[in-house]
Task: structure prediction
Amino acid sequence: MKTGYLGVDVGSVSTNIVVLDEKNQVLVEKYLRTNGKPITTVQEGLNIIGQEIGDKVKILGAGSTGSARYLIAMMLGADIVKNEITAHAVAASTFVEGVQTIIEIGGQDSKIIILRDGVVTDFAMNTVCAAGTGSFLDQQAVRVCIPIEDFGNYALRANNPVRIAGRCAVFAESDMIHKQQLGYNIEDIIAGLCEALVRNYLNNVGKGKDILSPIVFQGGVAANKGLAQAFSKHLETDIIIPPHYAVMGAVGAALLAKETISKKGKTSFKGFGIYDTEFKTTSFECQGCSNICEVVQFYENRELLARWGDRCGKWELEAV
Amino acid sequence: MKVSFPRMGYSYIALKWLVEHLGHDYIVPPEPSKKTLDLGVKHSPEFACIPFKILTGTYLEVAEEGVEVIVTSGGMGPCRAGYYWVMHQYLLDELNTGIKMVGLEPPRCDLIDFYKKLNWLRKTGGISLNAMLNVLKVTWEKLKVLDDIEMLSHQVRPYEKKRGETTRVLWKALEMIDEANTLQEIKDANNEGIKAINNIEKDTSRRPLKIGIIGEIYVVLEPAANHYIQIMLGEMGVETDRSIYLSGYTRNATIVNLEGDIYERAKPYMNEAPIGGHGVNSIAETVIYAENGYDGVIQLAPFACIPEIVAKGILPQVSKDKDIPVLTLFIDEQTGKTGVQTRLEAFVDLLEKRRETRNKIERLAI
Result:
C-alpha cells in the first residue's frame, strides 16, 4: 500500500482536493464547485476519492486551506490549517524552481505573491472589488453564450482587441455591451476584456510590487489562455502555468501537512468515511452583555465539536 | 443636559467621567455593531469613509436615548474629517433629532474657539472654573492610565497560556479605573490592574514577533472598526504596538510620540507637499518602527481615505529602504473578518519565515 498526503482547499467558488505521494506527485485531483455548501461538497469529494484510492493509498497527513479552512479542518481532522496565500506560495515554489512572482486568480480573490530565494517577501490581495476574478468571467461567458472553457480561445483568435474599461466589473460589463452594440466581433471584445482585467490586476493588486520572472500563473482562472497571453504581453516575459494550476492551494495544504507530520508524527485525519457523518452548524445570540455576539456551534452527529464567535471566550471555553 | 461623545476604544471611560463631573448626564455610546453600521450607511453620503459612517450610526443610536448634545473633535488641515461634525449637524437636523453638535477645534489651531465651547459646557453644567480645571486634570489622568493598561495588555497577550485570559483581566482592570474618582484612586486602580495583568500565567519561552500598527486615527483606535486586530494578532502570538493613543502626544511610554519629530522623519519621502490626516505620521512611524527593531508594520486605512492612499503609495519605498515589510489593510463596510484574518495570518507567516532565514535556520518548506 502506498502512502500519501491529503490537501483540501475550500474557496467561495471551488473546492479542490488532492492527494500527493511521497515524491510530491499528484495522485488524484478533484476540482468541485462549492455551490455555497462547503461541508457537503467536501464530504462528496472525499467519498469519490475514497472509492478511487481508499484501498490503495494510506493517508499519513491532511491539511486544509481556503476561506472555510477552520471549519473543514475540524470536520476532517486536519493536521494543519494554513491561509491560502502561504499554501499557494509553498506549492508554486515546490513545483517551479526559483519562482519569484506568483499571480493567483481564483473565484473571488486575486492575489500576487512575491518570493525571493524561496521565501515570501511580499503579497497583496484584491480589496473590496472582485473585478477580474473567476466569477465575473463565468458570468460574461454565460452572457455571450460561450462555454467558459472556450473563452480564452476566442481571445487568442482576436486580431484587434477592443479597449474595454476594466476598473470595475459593472463598468466593464456595460462597456462590453456597448462595444457589442457597435458591432465589434466577439473575439476582439473578449480579448479586450482579458487585457482590461490584466491592466486592472496590475494596477490594483500588483501596484508597487517588484514583478520579476520566473512568473507563475495559477488558480482556476489560469485556464483562460487569453488572460495568460495578455499577462505575457503586458509584462513582456513568459508566464509559466504549472500542470495542476487549478488546485495549487490544495497541493500546498498537502505539502504543509507532510511537513507537519514529519515533526508531529501521527495524523488526526478521520478517514474518507466522513461521508456518512452528519455535520451541522447552528448559531445563537448571546445575551450575556451588550456585545450580543453571534455564537456559532459546530456539531458532528449531534456531538458538539466547537463553539466560536464570542468575544469574551465564555462559550468557547465551555465547549472544550 | 444629556451629553454624549464618539466612541473610540476605551476612552469612553474617561470621557463619561468628564461629562458627569462637568455637571451633565452622560450617555455612553454602545460599541459599534452591525446595527450601528446599518444606521450609519443608511444615513451617510455613499462616498464618506467608514469613520464617518460609524459615527453617524453611533449618533443616531444615542439619539434614541434622548441625547441633547454631542461633543466631538474638529480638526484643521487637508483631511475632511475636520469638517465631519458640521456635516453631522446637518444630518442630525435633517432627521429632526434636535441634537446640538459641539466640535472642539484643536486648541493649538483655534484656542479661542476651544475655550468658548468648553466654557459653554462648564456654564451649562453649573460648575466653577476652578472645579473644571480639576475635572480636566483627573480626566487626563484617567485617559493616560487607560492607555497604559491597554498598551501593557498588548505586550502580555502573546505570552498568555490560556487564550483570552489577558482580555478578560484587562476588562476587570478597566472596571477598576472606571470606578476611580480621584488622582490617588486612579493611581491605585492602575497599579492593581498592572499587577493583575503581569500575574497572568505566561509561557516565557515564546519569542513573539513585533508588529507596529499605523494609519488613520479612528480605525486604529476603535477595535470594533478594525476587527479587534490587536487582540487577533496577540492571540496569534504577536506583540503589537500602535502608533496612536489618545494620550499619546505628550508621553514617553509609546515608541512614537513627538509630533515635531514626525515631520522630520517623514521628510526624505515627502519633500514636495504635506499630506493631511495621519498620512505623514504613517510614513514617519514606519521609519521609526523599522529603526526600533520591529518585524513588520500594518497600515490601517479607511477605504477611500486620501491621506492614507497617498501614504500607501510612498510606503513601498520606505519598506525597501528600511527593510521592513508593510501590509496595508483597507477597511470598509464590506470588509469581512475572514479576509482580514487571512491576510494577517499570511503576513505573520511571512515575518516568521523572514526571521528564520535571518537566523539562518535551515528548514524544509519555503
User: Anything to note?
Assistant: Chain A is about 40% helix and 25% strand.
